[in-house]
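Private note to self, pasted from the team thread so I don't lose it. Backbone tokens:
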């Protein structure tokens, strides 16, 4: 079974103007935001600007004890996964009583059979299946969840451990002659969730045949596979291998999907090293066989050699990950394998040639510790070995700001900062995974971070019984604007201690005494940022061997 991805890993797109105003960003780099006036409720920099009893959060002033949701993961390795609970009123002693392990239960059948009383009943499906559940918490916006497993149903019934949330569940039989099915399911901590699938019988499965060629009568000299998708890229068929010798393929669709006016057929290389493009065709299922699908002849592979320099334009960038991608002749899209630059910053890779009207994009991801940022560089790759000009990666954009202690007691020094990417800019890759800054705020409470283009959540961890504080920042991709982005100065909130015990129904296998030892506990505040629901992590901790936990939350 797969694991869970929570927190800010989900790419949440935000309206840049309203968000930047909410953060109080200043400087020439934000001139493009002037046409969107700030919602007044978002403007606060300290608790002193809020009404009595309120705290200044990223979305404005609010009740520190309201809109709180707690997530508890008792023991993921034992199948005891996330349970989410709203907290109506926080108490100094906040015990958390969990439900039994959360389970998504399902039934899968194929067709019906006559019963002794003259009726019909579903025929349980007993062959192996693969299950994929993707979604997010029902109560904590932005906390993504994903689980998958392969199992054999017990007389058509199956059980899958998951966390509480709303899911799209895709069931794919290991029998490739049957199409996948997708359903939605809501999983509650108290009751779990239930979903049923009815696989089509042989009479309701339509085999769609076709041929994939390179061009004309030329076959594709690589291992390829084809899959049918709907307009939202939901799979309508399993991936089918294309016969290399003939180009023939067969897809199994349900009768309903086979009767659609059009579907998407995506042809992709099995091995990225084969230097073949991928291509999506819009076809009518009933006429796929009528004419071959042409991948298009991109031309022979060529060698591309170049050099990458650090932002100063002189020092070579060693250990950078470099790749080429983009549209090629024939209308396909090429995604090359990445290579690493050597000690002199040089790279050498194989690529398909681009097209004159649309250069390929050279993607450079600097190594950790480099002052340079992720760089996208247009490169004209001709139908011959190519040596592009040197690529000088601009410096990462600097984000600066300052943090003050509560109640005007001076600057907050020694505050640790955790940087978490929460979204990618259009046309740009997702920034690298979150990291804890090796620096802390200085004696004046100032901080300085160098970040790649993208959307981030900055978590400030002050310690000394003070609660964490979060702020959002969007780093634009303009290469010419090197002015620092200044996050408006803000003041930490006072903290209140919160503790309690975490228990769950006794389970002889994992918790015979009903104590949730070593459980992960996270407190979130549900907010609205730029008009969209989101969540802010207020505190996280782990229970001890007796099930007790303690943490600090903001107060006034």
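Design output:
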């Amino acid at each position: 079974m797969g694991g869970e991805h929570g927190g800010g890993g989900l790419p949440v797109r935000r309206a840049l103007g309203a968000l930047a105003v909410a953060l109080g960003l200043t400087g020439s780099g934000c001139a493009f935001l002037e046409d969107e006036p700030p919602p007044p409720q978002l403007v606060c920099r300290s608790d002193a600007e809020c009404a009595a009893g309120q705290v200044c959060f990223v979305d404005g002033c609010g009740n520190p004890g309201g809109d709180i949701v707690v997530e508890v993961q008792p023991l993921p390795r034992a199948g005891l996964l996330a349970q989410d609970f709203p907290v109506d009123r926080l108490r100094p002693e906040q015990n958390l009583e969990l439900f039994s392990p959360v389970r998504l239960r399902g039934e899968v059948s194929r067709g019906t059979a006559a019963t002794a009383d003259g009726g019909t009943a579903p025929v349980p499906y007993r062959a192996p299946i693969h299950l994929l559940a993707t979604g997010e918490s029902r109560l904590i916006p932005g906390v993504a969840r994903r689980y998958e497993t392969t199992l054999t149903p017990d007389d058509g019934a199956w059980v899958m451990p998951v966390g509480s949330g709303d899911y799209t569940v895709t069931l794919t039989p290991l029998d490739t002659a049957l199409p996948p099915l997708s359903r939605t399911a809501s999983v509650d901590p108290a009751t779990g969730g239930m979903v049923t699938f009815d696989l089509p019988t042989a009479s309701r499965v339509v085999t769609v045949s076709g041929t994939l060629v390179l061009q004309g009568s030329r076959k594709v000299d690589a291992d390829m596979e084809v899959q049918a998708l709907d307009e939202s890229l939901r799979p309508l068929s399993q991936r089918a291998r294309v016969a290399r010798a003939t180009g023939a393929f067969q897809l199994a669709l349900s009768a309903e999907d086979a009767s659609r006016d059009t579907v998407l057929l995506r042809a992709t290389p099995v091995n990225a090293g084969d230097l073949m493009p991928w291509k999506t065709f819009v076809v009518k299922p009933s006429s796929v066989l009528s004419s071959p699908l042409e991948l298009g002849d991109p031309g022979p592979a060529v060698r591309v050699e170049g050099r990458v320099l650090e932002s100063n334009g002189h020092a070579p960038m060693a250990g950078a990950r470099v790749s080429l991608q983009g549209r090629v002749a024939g209308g396909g899209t090429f995604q090359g394998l990445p290579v690493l630059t050597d000690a002199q910053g040089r790279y050498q890779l194989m690529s398909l040639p681009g097209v004159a009207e649309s250069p390929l994009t050279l993607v450079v991801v600097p190594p950790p510790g480099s002052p340079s940022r992720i760089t996208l560089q247009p490169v004209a790759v001709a139908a011959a070995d190519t040596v592009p000009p040197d690529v000088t990666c601009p410096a990462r954009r600097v984000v600066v700001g300052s943090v003050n202690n509560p109640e005007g007691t001076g600057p907050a020094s020694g505050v640790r900062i955790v940087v978490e990417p929460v979204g990618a800019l259009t046309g740009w890759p997702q920034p690298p995974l979150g990291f804890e800054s090796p620096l802390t705020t200085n004696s004046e409470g100032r901080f300085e971070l160098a970040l790649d283009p993208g959307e981030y959540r900055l978590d400030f961890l002050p310690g000394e019984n003070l609660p964490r504080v979060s702020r959002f920042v969007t780093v634009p991709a303009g290469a010419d604007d090197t002015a620092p982005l200044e996050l408006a100065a803000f003041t930490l909130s006072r903290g209140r201690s919160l503790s309690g015990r975490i228990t769950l129904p006794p389970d002889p296998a994992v918790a015979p005494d009903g104590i949730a030892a070593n459980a992960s506990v996270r407190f979130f505040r549900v907010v609205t940022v730029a008009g969209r629901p989101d969540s802010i992590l207020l505190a996280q901790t782990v229970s001890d061997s007796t099930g007790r936990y303690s943490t600090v939350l903001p107060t006034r």
